[in-house]
Design brief:
The chain is an alpha/beta fold. It has two domains: about 5-45 and about 290-390, Aspartate Aminotransferase, domain 1; about 60-285, Aspartate Aminotransferase, domain 2 (3-Layer(aba) Sandwich), CATH 3.40.640.10. The chain is about 45% helix and about 15% strand. The protein has helices at about 5-10, 15-25, 45-55, 70-85, 100-110, 125-135, 155-160, 180-195, 225, 255-265, 270-285, 285-310, 330-335, 340-350, 375-390, and strands at about 35, 95, 115-120, 135-140, 165-170, 200, 230-235, 245-250, 325, 355, 355, 365-370. The strands form three sheets. Strands 2-8-7-6-5-3-4 form a seven-stranded mixed sheet, sandwiched between helices. Strands 9-12-11 form a three-stranded antiparallel sheet. The protein is globular and about 60 Å long. Bound molecules: pyridoxal-5'-phosphate. The site of pyridoxal-5'-phosphate has 13 residues, from helix 5. Its EC number is 2.6.1.-. One of its GO terms (molecular function) is pyridoxal phosphate binding. Belongs to the class-I pyridoxal-phosphate-dependent aminotransferase family.
Length: about 400
């Protein structure tokens, strides 16, 4: 039987593919170091586990409203007010089965066939596929390494056509870890307002920012910008809760209402128990989040130094998330490989270090390293990569 056209061109997630290959080698008993992970390596904090357990014991195991528990929506609204000074009412928020499904639902309610969404390259792997699944057209615009992987307002202006419906802003970014400044966001925001382009601000790494940098949401910069932005966020990365699948979107009521209608016919609601866990996350102490952040920062500082010390590798220093996205083209060519993809493959086979090739993110010269693993493992991985490069040069 022939499958539907909409899934025939779907490409499987490249991050999951490399993780699966690394796992298979590990199962053969090999000492593989996987730097492909897109999730924190810490346990979910205990007070959150306790809240979920209590919810189960109290029988809170039934359907909830499709858009999420009112008390969780209120806790999310309070978080917006507290952290970003943004006021959202409950009918401007939907709780979803992870931030990924918030994005999926958003594209479904937003796009008609042929509508365009501007996607900065490098991009998180699911954006283009989700846009295509909604019969939209991803319009790729390359954010150059020279401009620290960030789009300029001129690039945005050039990419806008009469079909442009939205633009994605992911700051801090997966895979690059870079973050837009207030001024950069303001400039892009002005262009979007002029051309009636909705801003989709994916802020899933909002809590993982290092040094003195502070997170800015484009929605914070003016009331007009807020009214033309949908913020996407969730507890996966901030509270090490990837498996719980709780994310959310906040934005204009009309959009959120349509998303809630669609959710009522697809997921019904995000898992009730996980919603109680997320409620605890947003009403409890941030102490453990801070500890995780400190651990990530230490790893970033060290790994960055180790990586740029390898011949043929350069790297824009990230300000957030938990990834490095170095350019490895010179190293790959110097080692006699035709592409960075081939170099990554040989590195896994010979030195048992799993990186994610940048081609999956639209940047074939780069590789993504996740530092969501212990310092010891990171040090050993960097040593192996260096040995591999030296051996082949
Ligand atoms: N957005 C970005 C940029 C991500 O990296 C991820 C996860 O990897 C998500 C959204 C989705 O997060 P989740 O569905 O776990 O909430």
């Amino acid at each position: 039987m022939e499958l539907a056209k909409r899934v025939q061109s779907l490409t499987p997630s490249s991050t999951l593919a490399i993780t699966a290959k690394a796992k298979a080698l590990k199962n053969e008993g090999l000492d593989v170091i996987g730097l492909g992970a897109g999730e924190p390596d810490f346990n979910t904090p205990k007070f959150i586990l306790d809240a979920a357990y209590k919810a189960m014991e109290e029988g809170k195991t039934k359907y909830t409203p499709s858009g999420g528990l009112p008390e969780l929506k209120q806790a999310i609204a309070n978080k917006f007010e507290r952290d970003q000074g943004l006021t959202y009412h409950q009918d401007e928020i939907i709780v979803t089965t992870g931030a990924k499904h918030a994005l999926f639902t958003l594209f479904q309610v937003l796009l008609n066939p042929g509508d365009e969404v501007i996607v900065p390259v490098p991009y998180w792997v699911s954006y283009p596929e989700q846009i295509k699944l909604a019969e939209g057209t991803p319009v790729f615009v390359e954010a150059t390494e020279e401009n620290e992987f960030k789009l300029t307002k001129e690039q945005v202006e050039q990419a806008i056509t009469s079909r442009t419906k939205a633009i994605i802003i992911n700051s801090p970014s997966n895979p690059t870890g870079v973050m837009y400044t207030k001024e950069e966001l303001k400039a892009i925001g002005e262009v979007c307002l002029q051309h009636h382009v909705l801003m989709i601000s994916d802020e899933i790494y909002e809590k993982l920012i290092y040094g003195d940098e502070e997170h800015t949401s484009i929605a914070q910069l003016s009331n007009d910008l807020k009214e033309n932005t949908v913020i996407i966020n969730g507890v996966s990365k901030s509270h090490s809760m990837t498996g719980w699948r709780i994310g959310y979107a906040a934005g204009p009521e009309k959009i959120i209402k349509a998303m809630t209608n669609l959710a009522s016919h697809s997921t019904s609601n995000p898992t009730s128990i996980a919603q109680y866990a997320a409620l605890a996350a947003y009403t409890g102490s941030d102490e453990e989040i801070e500890q995780m952040k400190e651990a990530f920062q230490e790893r970033l500082e060290k790994l960055y130094e180790w990586i740029i010390d390898i011949p043929g590798i350069s790297c824009v220093k990230p300000k957030g998330a938990f990834y490095l996205f170095p350019n490895a083209k010179e190293a790959a060519i110097g080692c006699g490989f035709e592409s960075v993809d081939d170099w990554v493959k040989a590195l896994l086979e010979e030195e048992l270090v799993a990186l994610v090739p940048g081609s999956g993110f639209g940047s074939a010269d780069n590789v993504r390293l996740s530092y969501a693993t212990s310092l010891d493992q990171l040090e050993e991985a960097a040593k192996r990569i260096k040995r591999f490069v030296n051996k082949h040069s």
